[in-house]
Amino acid sequence: MSETALSGLAERDITRYLEVVKLTLQRFMEECLGKEGQFREFFDRFASFTTGFIVNETLDRDPNKRHLQIARYFDDIQERPPQIFIQDNGYNYQPSGLGGIDDGWNMRNERGQQVIRVADVVTIPCQITCAALSEQDINNMAAFISAAFGQFQQEICKYILKPKPNPDRPAHWEVRLPFTFKVSPKKHESLHEDTRQQLWSVTADMDVVFENSVYMIYANQPKLEFTEGTLGVSVPSTIRLGQNVPINLTKHPPRFTVYTDDPRVAVVHKTNLTFSLQPRRPGTCTLFVTAEDGGSKGPRIFFQQTITVVSR
C-alpha cells in the first residue's frame, strides 16, 4: 500500500481517500489475475477465460503470454492494450453527525479513560474502463469485471476490501463494493485511422464506499468533591411553647436533612433555605442534622442536640 496514501489517512486528508480507493481496486484485481495472486486459483477454476493473463509485467515476445496492464493514472500506462484503467468521478462526503462521535466505550481503569471512534464515510463513484485490440479480449475482460465485482463476491471477499493486518501500523479502514453496478455496451473505433485495427472498450460504473475510523483515548475531567468544613448550628437547648425558634446553620454539607426524633414534642419547618423549630408540647426531643452518603451504613450524623420544650 502506498506510504503517501497511508500518511494521508493518518492526517485525515480527504484528497487521499480517492488514491486509497483506486489503489485498493487495483490490488484486488491484481490478486484475482496475478500469477501469485490470492484469488488466482479460484478464477482459474471457475473463470477459465482468465487463464494465462500476465498482469503488470514487462511486455515480451512470447505469443503464449496474455499481457494485461491495470493502472490508476494515465502516466502509468506503458504498454499496448489490453488494459484496465481505474478512474474516479469525485466523491460524496457524508459527515458522521453533528457530534461527530460514532461509538465509544469505557476502559474501566483508574484514570477513567474512554475510547471514542470518529468515522469518515465517503462515497466515490468509480469508473473501470477496459480496452483491447480484439473483440474476444474485450469480451473476456468484461466477463472478468462482472465476475470479480459481481457473481463471485460472496465467495471472494463479501463485498468488503480491507488492508492486510499489520501490528506495527494498524489501519482502521475498509472499501465497500456495491451490490450492483452498470456495464456499458461494447464500443470500438479505428486505431490510427486504420479500419483493420480496432480499439475495443467497455466501462463499468460503480459507487464505492470508503470508511476510515480514527480511535481516540481521553480521560474524564476530575470528579468534583466538596470540602467539608466544621458545621455550625445555633439553636437554644430550651424553648417555650408558642415560640418558633430559628435554626442557624453554617458550613453545612451540600445535601442534608434537619429533623427531630419526636415530632410530638417539636417539629422542624423549612422555608426556602431557612429552618425553624416549632414546639408542640412540653417534653424533650433530639434535633439532628444528617446527610445521605449513599453507603450501606445509613445517614451520616453531623450534629445532634437535646431540645427541651417548657410551658409558658
Question: How would you describe what is shown here?
Answer:
- With 312 residues, this protein is of the alpha+beta class.
- The strands form 3 sheets. Strands 1, 2, 3, 4, 5, 6, 7, 8, 9, 10 and 11 form an 11-stranded mixed beta sheet that branches.
- A hairpin with a 6-residue loop joins β5 and β6.
- α1 packs across α2.
- The longest helix has 20 residues.
- The termini are far apart.
Order of helices and strands: HHHEEEEEEHHEEEEEEEEEEEEE
CA(first)-CA(last) distance = 96 Å
- Rg over CA atoms, rounded to whole Å, is 39 Å
Largest sheet: 11 strands, mixed
Structural class: alpha+beta
Low-confidence stretches: none
Q: How many β strands by DSSP?
A: 19
- Tally of DSSP helical segments: 5
Helix content: 10-25%
Overall shape: it is rod-shaped
Portion of residues in beta strands equals 35-45%
Mean pLDDT metric: 80
